[in-house]
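Dear Dr. H.,

I hope your travels went smoothly. While you were away I took the liberty of generating a structure for the chain from your last submission, since the lab meeting agenda had it listed for discussion. I wanted you to have the full record in hand beforehand rather than looking at slides cold. The sequence, exactly as received, is reproduced here:
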Amino acid sequence: MTATTPEPEGPTTDLPPTTPVRWTRYIAMGDSFSEGLWDPYPDAPDVQRGWADILAATLSARRIAAGDAPLEYANLAIRGRKLRQIIAEQLDATIAAQPDLVSLVGGGNDILRAKADLDAISAALEDAVVALRATGADVLIGTGFKAGAALSWTNGRTGIFNANVWSIAQRHGAHVLDLWGMRSLADLRLWSEDRIHLIPEGHQRVANAALVALGLDPEDATYDVPLDVAPPVAFRETARANAAWMRQHVGPWVKRRLTGSSSGDGRTAKWPTPETWPRA
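The corresponding predicted structure, in token form, is as follows:
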């Protein structure tokens, strides 16, 4: 990918963290959520940022503030990938890079498919966590989101997957990014037009939740405080918005399913090699 090198935003405070950042190399595995869709870098709008890039920048800044070397970071996530694809394509490269921190968050693309075998994808996730933990790396895995409105039908399936995620974490000493439990994400104003990806503020909030999941202080202690109550929206406006969503996002998604294609076809990882973060 050729793009102007973005400069990720760092933490919002110069105060030293109460807990040292011990990790030296972090690799993010995943799909569009970890790739950072709908959160473009302000100075490089063709490059997505997202919560994992923000987390890496924060961890690196805290290490530097403590007098340590900057964090090294790679992001292997590619949009459209199902969980077993993520593992098949990204696990070996991750292990070869010898990170001491890995985030492996996926499963959302599987849950959207009615025939997905939740036990099978959970077993694949567990095998990957076991392999990563065997290297000595700390692992951050994530629950699925609690969906609303037209996607609320996925919540039962997501709940089963989430129960498996917590069990896997308990058995193998992994950290859990509890996206299901984030109250603020119930607000559709933190979601993009396609209703399955977060806007920049949502990614910032998730980055803070990831810090907490790793046992660190958040940059903003109010990261999960819900937004102020939204003014009521007329039924006509809601209907118009739903129709636009179906036309612009649901239709193309269904077409990709019918043709066996993916939004990630032909794409490669945006940051495939661990580099000092932020990038020079």
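Two observations you may find useful: The radius of gyration is 18 Å. Residues 231-267 form one domain.

With kind regards,
E. W.
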